[in-house]
Amino acid sequence: MTVGSTLTAVARPNDLRWTLITYQWLRNGMPVAGATTASYELTNADIGKTIGLESYGEADSYQDAGETFTAETPVKGYTLTPGAPAVSGTGQVGSVLTVAPGAWTIGTSYKYRWLRNGAAVTGATAESYKLTEADRGQRIAVRVTGSKPLFTSLTKTVLGAGSVAPSSTTVLNRTLPTLAGAPVVGSVLKASPGTWSQPGLTYRYQWLRDRSIPIPGATTSSYEVTAADLAFRNLTVKVYAVKRGWTSGTALSGSVGRILAAR
Description:
Elements: E1 6-8, E2 20-27, E3 30-31, E4 39-41, E5 51-58, E6 65-70, E7 78-79, E8 86-88, E9 96-100, E10 109-116, E11 119-120, E12 128-130, E13 140-147, E14 151-152, E15 154-161, E16 173-175, E17 178-180, E18 188-192, E19 195-196, E20 202-209, E21 213-214, E22 222-224, E23 235-242, E24 249-252
Parallel strand pairs: 7-14
Antiparallel strand pairs: 1-4, 2-3, 2-5, 5-6, 8-9, 9-12, 10-11, 10-13, 13-15, 16-19, 17-18, 18-22, 20-21, 20-23, 23-24
């Protein structure tokens, strides 16, 4: 049985005695709404299902009787010729991926479902998908399902991004480094690196006079103020945030000054 064909109940010789025969077509044993005549046209809803017929006869001088007939094989649909879906766009957070379904059987309609590591992304059912921070480092694919009346639906899945890259490959500063301590000769200033866009960072430091002049050897998170600093207006520290595979980020702290001699 193929979708689109019409099934018709034919009375057997013994059935001719019935003055009233009622019909109910069945799909996998359940009544098909509205299918109560002697003929039934197979639809897409029947594909893969077994079709049956329940008939009931009434006649004067005879006991009422009913029978159920069930087909042995499921209904088949015509076969779609699938296209080759292809995804365009950059696999980077903030970018948009778009899928083109390819050339399927003429008249095919499509549904889309974007996947993150094989699991459906909530609400992502359009032909385009904007990558979010949740996708960073994840595998993104899209499932294209083609359907057409009288045809068996078909699904193709294509990779969109093997591993989504971050929106930037540069480590970004979120809050500036800060300094603690008094700008007095002999006192120790301590730097906190601030906050950054990525975890797992290593920090490097360079202490500066007047915000631009490097102090030789002053490359740790603390610095002891010296008499040589009295000739300058202030002290600051430049922080380098380093991570393998990323472009290092830099940020300059606020300054401390004016610098005072020890009492």
